[in-house]
Amino acid sequence: MGKVNASIPKGTRDFGPQEVYKRQYIIRTLREVFERFGFQPIETPAMEQLSTLTGKYGDEGDKLLFRILNSGDFLRKADAQALAEKDSQALSPSISEKGLRYDLTIPFARYVVMNQHAITLPFRRYQIQPVWRADRPQKGRYREFYQCDVDIVGTGSLLCEAELIQIYQQAFSALQLPVNILINNRKILEGLAEVIGAKDQFNALVVALDKLDKIGWEKVIEEMERNGIDRSKAEQLQQIIENSGNDLSALREALAGSAAGLKGIDEIETIFSYLNDDEKAGASFTLTLARGLDYYTGTIFEVKAKDAQMGSIGGGGRYDDLTGVFGLKEVSGVGVSFGLDRIYDVLEEKGLYPETAAQGTQVLFVNFDSEGEAAAFGYCRELRAAGFRAEVYPESAKMKKQMKYADANQIPFVILIGSEERQQGVVTLKDMATGDQSTLSLSAVIQHLQEHLA
User: Fold this and answer.
1) Average pLDDT over residues 287-296
2) What domains, with CATH codes, occur in the chain?
3) In principle, which of 21, 378, 423, 430 could form an S-S bond with 358, CB 3.0–4.6 Å?
């Protein structure tokens, strides 16, 4: 076999021990908040039937699905005409029946339908798993990344939206990451489309408006024109948004002719009525928030870290009939997602990880000789039983090499057991940060570690 260059696909990443410890710290923090609100964990397969995934994310989303070739001779049943014409879009259904999941929401909707007799509605679930998108890799945008989702299905109560705001606030507070939580409602956007006479081009309007922060009004208007919205209507939309700002009273006047738009305003006001003053201060109605996914029907959310280069680090919304496409009608749901990879990058950028977040082994036993190794092995067993992460250096190498190993792995404490310590039934504990050494019994070591290790 010839030499193979070691590489990974673009848009994916390896994570070493220190990075994984930090990612696990984020996941632990989120899981604790999710469970505090009564959410239960589920998991779904990495791959789904393409029929489950396609048509749920809009045309742009469908283009980003990773398709999996059928097993075996996938060309045997290929569409001969599409193959001859090199029409990849027409060829795809005949050579690929499965795809990697694009998000966790559609698989969750499928799960609810398949397990409707085993779950009790309303059903509160959280899910922490990777998803895949055939996107162009760039800073903060990966082809493989983790989502951490919480959803409530089986109720249309706006109390759920208020709870999701609380979950965002409590989770990011626990991570010590200041954020802005932006809120809008798709019904308000429907109202805007209705009053400018572009109701039939609603999806095109939302997809273009979703890019406003990145490309500005002129480019947004140009995109709307390309998708069949008259320039005069697009400019009217700009005028309404700029005149109303984020003032719900002014917006209510502008949308007076749209029942859907007025209902959206009512829903936003109801959600804010559940929140206390501190919670209201951390969330803001944002009229230009659009979110391009087709399945949202009500409240939509987006979270951005304050004073960070990264864009959105979370988002979600209300979907009134997502399970309907799988045959289960009138099951409303709402949920939000935390972008683990982006949160990881922001915490790294801002230096917000606690010192203990990336801590692996807490205590290393130095290996002097065969007798010391046996003693260390027994003591190590007792430290592990007491709940500490401990290891014995596996061979009697030079002291310098063992200390270098402890430094490289950021191990905070080292224990030495020489012949003298063995005779006295004690050990020498070294604090690697200060260099201080103490001769202690094992029970005193355990007490010291309990006081100094979080």
Assistant:
1) 80
2) 17-44+103-350 (3.30.930.10), 359-452 (3.40.50.800)
3) 21
